[in-house]
Amino acid sequence: MGSLSVVMFEINEEAMDADAEMEKLKAMHESCSAEPISDSNNATTTEKNMAMLPGEIHEEDEEPKNAGEEKVHNSTARKKANRDRTLALADEVLCGREKETFDIIKLVGQPDNNQGCKVISVWGTDGTGKTTFVRHIYQSPQLGGWKRAWATASRPFNHEVLLRTLALQLLYTIQEDPAESTREQQKSISVMKLKELKEELARLLKLQRCLIVLDDISSALEWDVIKSCLDNAGRIIVTTREENIARHCSRVYKNIYSLDGLKDDAALDLFIKKVLS
Question: CA nearest 211: which of 136, 148, 142, 119?
Answer without folding.
Answer: 148
